[in-house]
Structures are given as C-alpha cells and as structure tokens.
Design brief:
Layout lengths: L2 H20 L2 H8 L7 H14 L2 H12 L1 H9 L3 H21 L1
C-alpha cells in the first residue's frame, strides 16, 4: 500500500474509530444492535439521555439489554429491591429517551 493510500485510509477511519471510542455503553450497544433504527444520530441522542439519567453502572447494565432482551425481562420480574430500584430508573430513562429522541 502506498503511503498516500495509507494516509487517506487513516484519515477516513480515524474519526470513526475515535467516535466509537468516545461513545458511551448505551450508544455502542445501540450502534451494534440489529435494529433498523440503530443509526448514529438516534443512538447518540439515547446516550445523551442516559448520561443525564443513569449512572455508569446502570448504563452498563442497560446496554446488555440490547444483546440480551431476556435479561431485561429477568430484571423486570426479579424480586430484588436493587433490581426494582434499577428498573424504576431504567423506565424513567426510557420515557425521557422516547420523548427526547423519538
């Protein structure tokens, strides 16, 4: 590969790589999901809402729901007070994201 081609390739890919590295867990999960609406603008908006409404641990937990919807159900039906508290925060996040990004 010639050096000009390498530089061109790097110039094209670097912003994408940096953008993905800076993306939060919700945005990364959204972008990698197979949902047709999983576009950068929508996923970025959802991440902004997550940054405003969920802590880091909650974001990591919620991001797992994109890969494993059954996990969301398990948390929802859980008898744990910790899961109940998380679910309340998650529902508020979802309502805010739907209103802001929907």
């Amino acid at each position: 590969m010639t050096s000009t081609l390498r530089l061109t390739f790097a110039a094209i890919l670097l912003p994408v790589i940096v953008g993905m590295a800076q993306a939060g867990p919700i945005e990364r999960a959204c972008l990698s999901s197979d949902r047709a609406a999983g576009n950068r603008s929508l996923c970025g908006c959802i991440q902004q809402v997550a940054d405003q409404t969920l802590g880091n641990g909650d974001q990591r937990k919620a991001a797992k729901f994109f890969r494993d919807p059954d996990l969301a159900h398990a948390v929802w039906i859980s008898q744990s007070s910790r899961d109940d508290e998380f679910w309340d925060r998650y529902k508020a996040f979802g309502a805010t994201a739907a209103a802001s990004c929907g």
